């Protein structure tokens, strides 16, 4: 074995300085030169903090779990304060566009709520989608009525502003009352049959609100004065939005009785069909009341002429 006497003076001085420095600073980094055949007894591992951060990224922390599982119950402010409702509109443009795209292109096997809504349910998108749809239906209905009777000498165009209030009542009642009834029904069935998938009231409102976006371009195209084209458009819109609703709510009822589950989905689709067909029939295919007196007078003249002959 080598001793300090066998080493050169400079080398011995270096070892002495290293020992002194290590004693002064125990946390300093040192290099251990060991025999190649000897197995190291202890290897320092990575800091525990970095591993915990990686686990949080992969598994999610407590905040992400609360957002995932309690999307509709994470509000801490009282409901009568402005801060409580402000959180419902805390959404950016990218999220709104992404959810609109998801409602226009439903993917089989993908849950719309889990894919787009659950991370941050909002009321901003549904509110403005419904408002835009109200004006689209009212304005398109007036323009359609004008174009159909364009060129008739006896026709005098009168704007029907009452269609705006009627459309607003229909659209907003559907977008709020139907989700409320569905949420209550799902809560009642969950008390009887434990379903794996459950939705909050805010998530259901989001689904219904975004599913109505397809009717905005459809209502604009309803200006075309061809009944066949209108019915084709309404069937396409109904197929897209109806598939979003059925694929979203089927996982919430499939664990229930088979008849109850099917009846629930059929009722959801039928109510959606009633909305679309009702708007088309009332705002675009309704008989013109201002022409009824003229038609009645013409009919009376025809009958009188027939009797006199």
From TrEMBL:
<dbReference type="GO" id="GO:0031267">
    <property type="term" value="F:small GTPase binding"/>
</dbReference>
<feature type="transmembrane region" description="Helical">
    <location>
        <begin position="123"/>
        <end position="144"/>
    </location>
</feature>
<feature type="transmembrane region" description="Helical">
    <location>
        <begin position="231"/>
        <end position="253"/>
    </location>
</feature>
<dbReference type="Pfam" id="PF04893">
    <property type="entry name" value="Yip1"/>
</dbReference>
<keyword id="KW-0812">Transmembrane</keyword>
<feature type="compositionally biased region" description="Polar residues">
    <location>
        <begin position="1"/>
        <end position="32"/>
    </location>
</feature>
<feature type="region of interest" description="Disordered">
    <location>
        <begin position="1"/>
        <end position="65"/>
    </location>
</feature>
<keyword id="KW-0472">Membrane</keyword>
<feature type="compositionally biased region" description="Acidic residues">
    <location>
        <begin position="53"/>
        <end position="62"/>
    </location>
</feature>
<feature type="transmembrane region" description="Helical">
    <location>
        <begin position="260"/>
        <end position="284"/>
    </location>
</feature>
<feature type="domain" description="Yip1">
    <location>
        <begin position="104"/>
        <end position="276"/>
    </location>
</feature>
<dbReference type="GO" id="GO:0000139">
    <property type="term" value="C:Golgi membrane"/>
</dbReference>
<feature type="transmembrane region" description="Helical">
    <location>
        <begin position="200"/>
        <end position="225"/>
    </location>
</feature>
<dbReference type="GO" id="GO:0031902">
    <property type="term" value="C:late endosome membrane"/>
</dbReference>
<dbReference type="InterPro" id="IPR006977">
    <property type="entry name" value="Yip1_dom"/>
</dbReference>
<dbReference type="InterPro" id="IPR039765">
    <property type="entry name" value="Yip5/YIPF1/YIPF2"/>
</dbReference>
<dbReference type="GO" id="GO:0016192">
    <property type="term" value="P:vesicle-mediated transport"/>
</dbReference>
<keyword id="KW-1133">Transmembrane helix</keyword>
<comment type="similarity">
    <text>Belongs to the YIP1 family.</text>
</comment>
<protein>
    <recommendedName>
        <fullName>Protein YIPF</fullName>
    </recommendedName>
</protein>
<feature type="transmembrane region" description="Helical">
    <location>
        <begin position="164"/>
        <end position="188"/>
    </location>
</feature>
């Amino acid at each position: 074995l080598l001793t300090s006497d066998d080493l050169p003076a400079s080398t011995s001085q270096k070892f002495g300085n290293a020992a002194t420095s290590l004693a002064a600073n125990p946390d300093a980094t040192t290099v251990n030169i060991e025999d190649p055949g000897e197995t190291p007894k202890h290897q320092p591992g990575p800091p525990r903090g970095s591993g915990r951060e990686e686990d949080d990224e992969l598994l999610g922390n407590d905040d992400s779990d609360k957002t995932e599982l309690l999307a509709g119950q994470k509000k801490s402010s009282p409901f009568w304060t402005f801060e409580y409702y402000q959180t419902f509109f805390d959404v950016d443009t990218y999220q709104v566009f992404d959810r609109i795209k998801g409602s226009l292109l439903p993917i089989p096997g993908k849950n719309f709520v889990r894919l787009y809504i659950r991370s941050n349910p909002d009321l901003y998108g549904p509110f403005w989608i419904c408002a835009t749809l109200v004006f689209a239906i009212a304005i398109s209905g007036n323009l359609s009525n004008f174009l159909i009777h364009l060129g008739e000498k006896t026709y005098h165009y009168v704007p029907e502003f009452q269609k705006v209030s009627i459309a607003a009542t229909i659209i907003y009642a559907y977008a709020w009352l139907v989700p409320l009834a569905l949420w209550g029904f799902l809560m009642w069935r969950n008390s009887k049959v434990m379903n794996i998938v459950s939705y909050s009231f805010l998530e259901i409102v989001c689904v219904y609100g975004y599913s109505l976006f397809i009717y905005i371009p459809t209502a604009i195209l309803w200006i075309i004065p061809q009944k066949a084209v209108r019915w084709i458009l309404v069937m396409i819109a109904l197929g897209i939005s109806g598939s979003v609703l059925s694929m979203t709510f089927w996982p919430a009822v499939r664990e229930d009785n088979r008849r109850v589950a099917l009846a629930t989905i059929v009722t959801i689709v039928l109510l959606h069909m009633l909305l679309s067909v009702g708007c088309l029939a009332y705002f675009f295919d309704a008989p013109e009341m201002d022409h009824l007196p003229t038609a009645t007078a013409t009919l009376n003249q025809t009958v009188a002429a027939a009797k006199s002959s």
